[in-house]
């Protein structure tokens, strides 16, 4: 029998609990068994990893509200692969997002004043909380990859004159490309290399109550091909450029960008707030050499009961990985007891963080998203390669990876309304058989 590590989640009060094979419920012989067949010879994408975002709000809560012992604990539980869940991808908003205590860019100017030479460019805001936490995370896990996405260009570059709504003016395309260069160079000086950027978060969404910028596909393809990529080449920057960074329901957007800027774009970034994960594969089929990344999905009060919310992360996470994504990144690393802080005027927040930091009591709690991410990130390590996992019953959702140490990680989720018999079939090894409760998750590491 191979060496096994098994973690199971069966409900709100039993999340990511270590088990032995003997502790799992044995198969009920009277019922049919779903077989999950693992084929190491059929390989797919290599993983960068799993993670979330140190938004301004998240970084403030962890760095300033928690005491030193709590901060040390949460950073270890987030990023240490032994004592924690080993998160390895962090997506940074470039300037303010909806989850920031105020609205800011790295080059704010008074009304009617421009700064095309970026003389006033500064990342001083991020040096208080965000940068120290990123540095700590990298110390704990040097394999972490940093991504960056703006919610808006500085207001003076836009038709609205504000970081809220509007489009990037054509005459400032070069200044905006230079803004990316300055950001990457400034973070590099802090020992923080930027692995990938997207030109704009959710470019088809233009809310009027937090930083946003409409960037149609024709504008994005022009910006990437003729300004951003040439600026990276000029400054010897090797940061990847991912296009789109929005929902699955508009695959026409990245297809439009890639048709024109194929050589300048490294991949496509996706969110889960509309459409189906199969869009990732649809675009990959048309542009087979481009990477697939999943850069944002938040849980929240719109999926209120625990079971539905936990099931959504497990089910959708497996779908994201089966549709070739190299990353699976949720949204805020931390929010408070009111699902904030948010920018002024935002209104009621319904999002959920990976952890909750209660600003009144200073209590630190780990949410269902932490434990759902753990099912993936604890065992599927950076540079793991996805291998084929097929089932004869779709109610048992599965995904499998082979790590660099040759261990096999299998993540299972029973999407049925009843318990199911499951057998995991590995080449040259005995089958692993057990009964899996309805809406429960099981992660197995086989050495």
UniProtKB/TrEMBL annotation:
Keyword DNA-binding: no
Keyword GTP-binding among record annotations: no
Residue ranges of every copy of the Glycosyl hydrolase family 30 TIM-barrel domain listed in the record: 48-380
Pfam families listed in its UniProt record: Glyco_hydro_30, Glyco_hydro_30C
All residue ranges annotated as the Glycosyl hydrolase family 30 beta sandwich domain in the record: 384-441
Cross-referenced Gene3D superfamilies: Glycosidases (3.20.20.80), Golgi alpha-mannosidase II (2.60.40.1180)
Keywords, comma-separated and alphabetical: Glycosidase, Hydrolase, Signal
SUPFAM superfamilies according to UniProt: (Trans)glycosidases
Matching InterPro entries: GH, GH30_C, Glyco_hydro_30, Glyco_hydro_30_TIM-barrel, Glyco_hydro_b
Source organism, top-level taxon: Bacteria
Stated family: Belongs to the glycosyl hydrolase 30 family.
Name of this chain's protein: Glycosyl hydrolase
Organism: Paenibacillus pseudetheri
